[in-house]
Amino acid sequence: MNRSDASSPAAPASSAAEPARAFPLGARWWFRPVPLARIAVVRTIAYLFIWVDVWLTTAWVRAHADVPPEWYAPLTIGELLPLPTPTRTVVTVVQWALLLTALAAATGRAPRLLGTAVFLLYLEWMVIAMSYGKVDHDRIAFLVLLAVLPTVGVARWRDRRRSEAAGFAMAAVLLAVVLTYFLAAWAKIRFGGWDWPTGATLARAVIRRGTSLSEWTLDAPWLLEALQWAMIVLEALAVLLLLVWRDRARVALVVFLIGFHLMVYAGVTIVFLPHCVAILSILPWERVPELRGRLLARRHRRPGVPAPATP
């Protein structure tokens, strides 16, 4: 392991008090400095979520260990790279190597080495998952998140220094989140044509996976068709999210997107958990200690509440 990987701060990083370097408009969007504390929090969330994903969200991947090898139809990346055909040994080794490496990476140690290992192992886990005729699109942004986290280097939870490398990583994830929505709208029209928003896609989903919160919509087909048009329009306009800069606006954006996915889950029990984890990277996590301090100070200003002791 490189000595600088374990002890040196991520580069390039600058103090919050230093003026940002002048960039052209495009580069300014990509390299807008972000506090390293945000990377530290997002890194912990992403790596710990892998345990949730392997044991709950994609627990079915382990069943591929018992599938006949001739059923394996690797994705393009599986054809280009000499990846092994999934067997019980291969699936078990990848599963436990991914879990243990992710747990170690969540501690923040050797972020480049362990982070790269987590990305490669999770990529192989996804090749095993999606090489049997089913490919999910809710993994793209999460894979991008795992790919860019090791590029930042060392980051601590209370590190307020701003880093252009961190800014590039978060910009890449935001772009992946936006493209997931935009390309979903494009795919709907490409493969389903304009019959998709006027068809019975949502009605079929409600019939197959509906809950008591959505079954009543079957009596209002006009509403389901309107929702399908709304999905197409909102997904196509997702590129406008790239213009969101201010922290408050980004918080509102995350609340809206997570609320949308919760609504979909409540209606048809479909949830894109890895995608939602990638969405969480948009939040200004470095401001949580500051907001907590403000809440405590406001509480102690109330009558009858003793002031906090001076450390």
Automatic annotation (TrEMBL):
Keywords (A to Z) from UniProt: Membrane, Transmembrane, Transmembrane helix
Membrane-crossing segments per the record: 40-61, 89-106, 113-133, 139-155, 167-187, 226-245, 252-285
Presence of keyword Transcription regulation: no
Protein name: HTTM domain-containing protein
Organism of provenance: Trujillonella endophytica
